[in-house]
Amino acid sequence: MKKLFILALSVVTLASCDQFGKGSAEQAMRERDSLMQIINQRDDELDEIMGAINEVQEGFRRINEAEGRVTIANGQPEGASTRSIITENMQYIQQAMQQNREMIAQLQDKLKKSNVNAKSLERTIQGLQEQLEAQGQRIQELEAQLAEKDILIAEQGDQIDNLSENVNSLTQENRQKSETMAAQDKDLHTAWFVFGTKAELKEQKILKDGDVLKTADFNKDYFTQCDIRVMKEIKLYSKSAQILTTHPAGSYTLQKDEKGEYVLRITEANKFWSVSKFLVIRVK
């Protein structure tokens, strides 16, 4: 409307200037162009200010959305994904708040330097400044809540760590006990046996001066280790066999197989090995 009014005024001015000469008409044209330039400049400044105001308001809207996501996440059970959501949104809020601060400061500066003289714009920018301060206060309160929650989480984390340490300690203790019991169980059920000719047994110092295992210098590696719970039968591959160590009668049998070779069968393991965990058999 301002531009139409100026154009109409210019036409009237030009028409009247025709009555006074060409020089006056040119002067009128220059004045009209100058007025149009001033009006266009003010319109551009106004458009720029209004665009900046819209950007600030859009920034507030996005901050409010991010704030809502933090509030929702803050009420959820603690977890890695929840903490990630809170952290990302709080970082975004801080960045957006800083951008709005800078834009409002630029708006205030532009309005001071512009040719636009509008009290309503001043009030609008002042309202944006107040809105920014109120939002900043809410963010501080939210940060305080998150900080308090972090303290609680840290305390719970310490408790969990202590429990984990106790569990690990108990687990290690139980493992050691299990290993000890397993070793004891293995020792309890481990025995050694050997069979060989008289010459072989004497060579390994198992048989010495007619006695068996009377000295500690015999070759233990010559024996075969076995689990008495598993080992119930020993094939001797000989038609002559004599047990030299002491084992209770009735806990075993020594019989020949279909080939006429002796086989030792242990019928009561605990009783058989109760006197000695070493079994020595002389064969021919």
Report on this model:
The protein has 284 residues and is α+β, with helices and mostly antiparallel strands. Helices cover 64% and strands 13% of the residues. The protein has two domains: 2-163; 187-283, no CATH class. It has six helices and nine strands. The strands form three sheets. The protein has a four-stranded mixed sheet with strand order 4-1-9-6. A three-stranded antiparallel sheet has the order 5-8-7, with no helix packed on it.
Summarize the structure.
This protein is α+β, with helices and mostly antiparallel strands and 284 residues long. It has six helices and nine strands; from the N terminus they run ααααβαβββββββαβ.
C-alpha geometry = rod-shaped
Count of separate DSSP helical elements: 6
**How are the strands of the biggest sheet laid out side by side?**
4-1-9-6
The chain-level structural class is alpha+beta
Following the backbone from N to C, one meets helices and strands in this order, namely HHHHEHEEEEEEEHE
